[in-house]
Specification:
Blueprint (H helix, E strand, L loop, with lengths): L6 H29 L2 H33 L5 E2 L8 E2 L7 H28 L4 H29 L4 H8 L2 H25 L1
Antiparallel strand pairs: 1-2
Helix pairs in contact: 1-2, 2-3, 2-4, 3-4, 4-5, 4-6
């Protein structure tokens, strides 16, 4: 018999995911320090990016849940085998609760992205920290490109359900992701050339 999902179960699941990714990155980083090879360097870069990106996503979901709960929304909890923690129905909640859910998600990933960049600023000589910073920045710019237009529309009076339906379509998310990642890549290349 299956037990209904609990918040403690989500906390354990997400902490395990982040811990496993961090341990893998640590191992890849140690390997790269020993060998200095292109394969270990490539795996560290991918591992750092994935670790930061997934951690941003997880904290983004926790931010959604916390924001909605702080605004008094009765938010259900999704099953453990899916990526969404909070089950939030915009039609059943107020505009303020939708905005609190939205800003909570922004606070979640902005916190992680800022931490990834701060770690890189302290430990600049390591490829792993640079990869963490890029992964955190990639999630930040992508999510802001997707989330902010919806938040602004709802703040200005648009219907939360319709705005969410239009703004969260796969096509729009993919287009805004590539646009924001292209701008980030150009900015990183320019920054690298200037330094």
């Amino acid at each position: 018999m299956s037990h209904p999902p609990r918040l403690a179960g989500w906390l354990v699941r997400d902490a395990l995911i982040i811990s496993v990714l961090a341990l893998i990155l640590y191992g890849l980083h140690a390997w790269h320090l020993q060998t200095g090879g292109w394969l270990s360097g490539s795996l560290v870069a991918v591992g750092g990016f994935v670790t930061a990106y997934v951690t941003c996503y997880i904290l983004h979901e926790w931010g959604h849940w916390a924001g909605a709960r702080l605004a008094g929304a009765n938010v259900g909890i999704g099953s453990y085998n899916q990526p969404l923690l909070a089950r939030f129905d915009p039609a059943a909640h107020s505009r303020g609760q939708f905005l609190a859910l939205s800003w909570g998600g922004v606070a979640g990933y902005a916190t992680v992205a800022t931490l990834c960049v701060a770690i890189w600023l302290v430990l600049r000589e390591h490829l792993a920290t640079a990869a963490l910073a890029v992964g955190g920045l990639a999630f930040l710019v992508q999510s802001l490109a997707v989330d902010l237009p919806q938040i602004v529309k709802v703040t200005n009076g648009a219907d939360a359900l319709e705005t969410n339906r239009q703004g969260a379509s796969g096509e729009i998310i993919l287009r805004r992701t590539w646009q924001s990642w292209s701008l980030l890549a150009a900015a990183l290349i320019l920054w690298h050339q200037l330094n």
